[in-house]
Design a protein that fits this description.
Bound molecules: 2-acetamido-2-deoxy-beta-D-glucopyranose
GO molecular function, one term: hydrolase activity, acting on ester bonds
Helix content: 40-55%
Strand order of the largest sheet: 2-1-3-4-5
Radius of gyration: 21 Å
Shape: globular
InterPro entries: GDSL, GDSL_esterase/lipase, SGNH_plant_lipase-like
Family: Belongs to the 'GDSL' lipolytic enzyme family.
Distance between the termini: 63 Å
Signal peptide: 1-24
Keywords: Signal
């Protein structure tokens, strides 16, 4: 018995140090968002109309098959995970509560989702940001059952929370003339509603253990093919870009307020507006040829997604946009590189910024 005790203590110490060292080397990644980061959750929502489980989605993904990603290849979350040296977090709805995969990361993103519940209402079913946070709370409970409260809290505190939401609150809500929000609210009132809601949501995430939050700011949405089609002359919609800049500025301020109020919070704004605008204005600098229209020939009057009978461009890597809303795999790689080159983001976690490479040339 006397001889056994030191051995037991030794092996306990040993296993504890193994756990710590793997944690510092391999970050845990939780992804929240919309169709820009959905990796298959909506495939599990029977009534959802926001789906991409058909060709030619996924044509450049492993195996060339549709997975529920709204692009020809990888989402930005996939590429960030690869740069962090971890597997791409699986869709939440693909996991059982016993699945150990959740210890490495989970993706809660859902096509059509917004900050507001009512955003994307016509997609019938999707996980709004509130729903996604509820799913994360379930994950946290399941991890607590596996590891105990202290280890579970530590895992959450050290994990990277990548949040990318807001596009749909404009494109599939405020800017839609047949929906209520654009009529009942002025722009400023709508922004107040978004900020109050987002502030509450990020605070809820904080109390569920989130500390290292990266909020992926909005891109110049006025220049995506669906918005250029609305302009009638193929130009960017400047007022939409103005809305985006106002939104980004207010989110940045909101995060600074949350950081000052919530001890230990490290919420960071990933600003990609100028870089993406540059990519759209000067695609050739980044190895692209076309940025004003999409690779997949889409009909924006019937939704703007790439349908099985659509024609594809011959070189998908030369296009910034895949369909009327979503970047190509090649453009997502540039976006991920921009994020990794941001010194503010590198401060959030030592693994971020480690594999930064300059955004040009590919
Ligand atoms: C949004 O939905 C969530 C549950 O999905 C609910 O808890 C929340 O109260 C709703 N928010 C509003 C403003 O209705």
């Amino acid at each position: 018995m006397e001889a056994l005790l030191p051995t037991l203590v030794m092996s306990l110490l040993l296993s504890a140090s193994i756990v710590t060292s793997t944690e510092t080397r391999k970050p845990v990644l939780y992804v929240f968002g919309d169709s820009l980061s959905d990796v298959g959750n909506n495939n599990y929502l029977i009534f959802s109309l926001a789906k991409s489980d058909y060709p030619w989605y996924g044509i450049d993904y492993y195996g060339g098959i549709p997975t529920g990603r709204f692009t020809n290849g990888r989402t930005i979350g996939d590429i960030i995970a690869a740069k962090l040296g971890i597997p791409s977090p699986p869709p939440y709805l693909s996991l059982s509560e016993y699945d150990d995969a959740m210890l490495k990361g989970v993706n809660y993103a859902s096509g059509g989702a917004g900050i507001l519940n009512e955003t994307g209402i016509y997609f019938i079913e999707k996980l709004s940001f509130d729903d996604q946070i509820g799913c994360y709370e379930e994950t946290k409970e399941a991890i607590t059952l596996k590891l105990g409260r202290v280890a579970s809290e530590k895992l959450s505190n050290e994990a990277i929370f990548l949040v990318g939401l807001g596009s749909n609150d404009y494109i599939n809500n405020f800017l839609r003339p047949f929906l209520a929000d654009g009529h009942i609210y002025t722009l400023e009132q709508f922004e107040d509603l978004l900020m109050n809601t987002l502030g509450g949501q990020l605070t809820r995430l904080y109390f569920a253990g989130a500390r290292k939050v990266i909020f992926h700011g909005l891109s110049p949405m006025g220049c995506i093919p669906s918005q250029r089609a609305i302009s009638g002359n193929g130009q960017c919609l400047d007022y939409v870009n103005d809305y985006v800049m106002r939104f980004n500025k207010r989110v940045k301020y909101l995060l600074s307020v949350l950081n000052s109020r919530l001890p230990g919070a490290q919420m960071t704004f990933a600003d990609c507006y100028d870089s993406v605008l540059d990519l759209i204005n000067r695609p050739e600098i980044y190895g692209f040829k076309i940025s004003h229209t999409s690779c997949c020939n889409v009909d924006t009057t019937v939704g703007g997604l790439c349908l099985p009978n659509s024609n594809l461009c011959s070189n998908r890597a030369e296009y910034v946009f895949w369909d009327a809303y979503h970047p190509t795999d090649a453009a997502n790689e540039v976006l991920a590189n921009i994020l990794f080159a941001d010194p503010e983001i590198a401060k959030v976690h030592p693994a971020l910024g480690r594999n930064a490479s300059p955004p040009s040339p590919r």
